[in-house]
Amino acid sequence: MLYNWTVLPTCLPLVRRRCHTCASGRFRTGGKFRVNAHHKLIDAWLLVLCTGCGETAKLTVFERARVRTVRPELLDRLHHNDPGLAAELLQDPVLLRRNRVSLDWDGAWRLDTGGSDHLDQDAIDVSVGFAARIPVRPVRLIAEGCGLARAEVERLLSGGKVVSGVRLSGKLSGDFAFTLKY
Fold first, then answer.
1. Which residue in 78, 102, 130, 149 is deepest, having the highest Cβ count within 10 Å?
2. DSSP 118
3. Per its UniProt record, what InterPro entries does this chain match (predicted)?
């Protein structure tokens, strides 16, 4: 039987960026935007707050863009501080690269296994899906989903008891499948 697990975000991730005021390395976002127009040009930023001192920093969404090139529904979402838009923009690798930041997903996701009826099986086939691009170690997902220690999953992996079409070392943020034989 094939089991479907899903990695779901529980909140917005922290933004890794150095604070110029207190030298903290983490910022949180509440989904607020700042939009500034200069005649026919427009700038937009996602505002983030330092977790150490509360200082505000800006992540550039776009700058010096012609107003006509910005979709009206995007402009409306920016003006209304749409938290869904903030989540979408934080998933955009171009925005992250442009602002030279990365995301810290620790404590911002959960694994939905759909129940624990798979724990009494001798072997299970699992398909893992990601609701957002959350980089997670597959060993951690398997351990959490099966109620095992990570060291036990590593031992099963090296013993050939965990089989997958993708490499299970490192981090993954895309869908994958595996078979586990206890």
1. 78
2. G
3. DUF1062
